[in-house]
Amino acid sequence: MQLNLSQIHSAHERYEKVYPREAFAGDDTVKVAAPVALEFDIFKDKAQFRLVGRVQTALELPCVRCLEPFTWPIDSPFDLRYQPRTENAGVGEREIEEDDLSTAFYEGQTIDLQQLMREQFYLALPMKPLCREDCRGLCPVCGTDLNRIHAERIALEQARVTGVGVRSARLGQQLGEHGDVAQREVEALSAHRMQRMRRVAEHRETRARLLLGGHELQRIGGTLAGVQ
């Protein structure tokens, strides 16, 4: 992964390339989890070169609390100046200036792009890598991942609530069905009672008429006996 400076002839050129993550294998410091996209503009001024661009990829980091690996996205812009290492030869100690922080050196006619990208990886690393802000870490007694225990408890609680909800719905449906049947039975029973009450009323009315008729016949018979 070298940038050949001898092939840069104009004052401004463009560089774009995507490297597979396997190209960064063997680095024990960071683990690249996705292809690395590198793009930058090259500004040439005699033997000095300015590279302005960005690096985009994803790194796999261990969480400092639970130690589980997680993915950390990288989108790191850079603005670097490169000059020949010979120009810095023989320079004694001096105060570091702001431009020195963005100045690098190259040897021969190449710039090591892999080193450039790795430096951007390190600069983009979080001070305290966490898989999530509310990571519960490890149990201080047994070392169990507390995140998994919490997730399992939530899953069990949801399953319990869901089960109760399903049972309640079924019970409500059953009660509704039983309620409809009971309503129909009440209505049928009420109709039967009404019919029975009407029959009893008709029977009593008929009996009363018969009793009145018998009394009338007795009165008539008594009258005729008196006349004789």
Describe this structure in words.
The protein has 228 residues and is α+β, with helices and mostly antiparallel strands. Helices cover 41% and strands 27% of the residues. It has 2 domains: 2-135, no CATH class; 139-228. The protein is built from 2 helices and 8 strands. The longest helix is centred in the C-terminal third of the chain and has 82 residues, at 146-227. The termini are far apart. The mean pLDDT is 78.
Labels describing this entry:
228 residues, alpha+beta, 2 domains, six-stranded mixed beta sheet, two-stranded antiparallel sheet, 2 helices
Structural class: alpha+beta
Overall body shape = rod-shaped
Biggest beta sheet attributes: 6 strands, mixed
Rg over alpha carbons: 49 Å
Strand segment tally: 8
Query: Into how many domains do the coordinates divide?
Result: 2
Summed over residues and divided by their number, the pLDDT gives a mean of 78
Helix content: 40-55%
Query: Which regions contain 5 or more consecutive residues with pLDDT less than 50?
Result: none
SS element count, helices: 2
Set down the secondary structure blueprint.
Layout: E1 2-4, E2 12-19, E3 31-32, E4 36-45, E5 48-62, E6 69-84, E7 103-106, E8 110-112, H1 113-124, H2 146-227
Parallel strand pairs: 6-7
Antiparallel strand pairs: 1-8, 2-4, 3-5, 4-5, 5-6
In short:
The protein has helices at about 115-125, 145-225, and strands at about 1-5, 10-20, 30, 35-45, 50-60, 70-85, 105, 110.
